[in-house]
Design brief:
There is one protein chain. Helices cover about 20% and strands about 35% of the residues. It is of the alpha+beta class. The longest helix has 11 residues.
């Protein structure tokens, strides 16, 4: 993997970079059908639905334990999720990790030589701050950092 460990000053041990898994993002062509599978078949409660125009998606969060499944439907073919679906079809899009301070973590990862997609945090679902790491930094998996909002939208 291209990611380098971040060492603490105190003991030279590795400091955790991520908190817990916040959500797993799944790209879908038919949002309503995907909701039906996750809510009605798997019993996951739908807890939030939002259009994120600047990311070109309609997103739905369903609870599973302390984490979520985020279903992502593109608002058009020429959006990141639209291009993903055209190239790869529906399925796992990204893994998102919860962090306390996304800007600070981005700085640490940048200093460690990790390839970033986002140099600065941007707005995400439910007023969160998010940033993406390039898949080449994590074994081919698109990775999202999520700083949850103090109060959800």
């Amino acid at each position: 993997m291209a990611a380098k460990a971040i060492r603490t000053d105190a003991e030279g041990t590795l400091a955790p970079v991520f908190g817990s898994i916040d959500h797993i993002g799944v790209a879908v062509a038919d949002l309503e059908a995907a909701i039906a599978v996750h809510r009605d078949t798997y019993g996951m409660p739908l807890v939030h639905r939002e259009t994120i125009a600047d990311q070109g998606v309609e997103a739905v969060l369903l609870d599973v334990g302390d984490s979520h499944v985020e279903l992502l439907a593109p608002l058009g073919d020429d959006t990141p999720v639209g291009r993903f679906l055209a190239k790869r079809g529906p399925g796992l899009h990204h893994v998102a990790y919860r962090v306390d301070d996304v800007a600070a973590v981005l700085g640490e990862l940048r200093a460690a030589g990790v390839r970033l997609i986002d140099e600065e945090p941007r707005a995400g679902i439910r007023n969160s701050q998010v940033a993406f790491l390039h898949p080449s930094a994590s074994g081919g998996v698109l990775t999202e950092l999520v700083q949850i909002a103090a109060v959800h939208a």
